[in-house]
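Narrative of activities, Objective 1.

The group set out to show that a structural description can be obtained from nothing but a protein's sequence at a throughput compatible with the screening campaign. Below is one input-output pair from the validation batch, recorded exactly as produced.
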Amino acid sequence: MPVARLKFRFRLIVKEEYQPLRNVPRWLWLLMATAIAAQIAFSVLLLPQPKPKISALHQPPSALFLQAVSLGDPLALGRILMMNLQAHDNQQGLSIPFRELDYDVLGQWLDRIVSLDEKAEYPHFSAAKIYSFVSNEERQNKMIEWVRRHFARSPDTRWEWMAHMTNLARHTLKNNALALEMAKEMRDLTTPGKVPGWVRQTEAFILEEEEEYEASASLLAGLLEAGEVTDPTEFEFLLRRLEDIIDKQVKSGEIRTQAQIKEKTRTLESLQARFLSQYQEPTKEVNKPQ
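Output recorded for this entry:
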């Protein structure tokens, strides 16, 4: 026996079936407006407003644990952790000021990230140019110490961040004693030729600002005599700078005797002769006609 096919009949809705709005009773309009107003008032005035809660920066896992869970790809895990750390100051629509962060824990997180990728630059960039950008001297000093500690592990590749933090101590914190310590570390730990010359000259310039003219002059003269400066323009600039420092020594009374003046003059003449012998273009001989 054949199965009867089910037939569905769809009713088409045509515009003639709609009622015009003018036919809606006024009391229904009033009721709808009252309901909407009550809903808005209830939501705004009676319902408790959500209060975002700031989540504290928790302690990072141990370096051994992170190495284990990296599954043989510590570089990728380091980047993920860095992005997660960078996003911590934005929670539930809140922008958390850096002054609310625990900088001791922050430094530990940066340590873990560097342990996963020793060549990563972004942790050092973040410490030097992001997390140090806070109006809090204590937190700035913690970032300075973090950069100093990691600079000592690889001076020739991390000098840029150390130089930036030296300027922070010098110009923002107005702590020339700290800046001088850091400049000395840059000169002692970096390798000549592997870092820009000004990095190793920073100590001499700070000493000049501190009116330690003799120490500044000795450092500049030593750098020039050691042959560290290979660019002729830079050599001439430092030579003129050394001459200016010696003039300051004379004006300040630090150099008084003729013997001292002659000694300084001989130093300048020796360096000038070295400059001319190394960088002056040799005179080309002109062949005379036979």
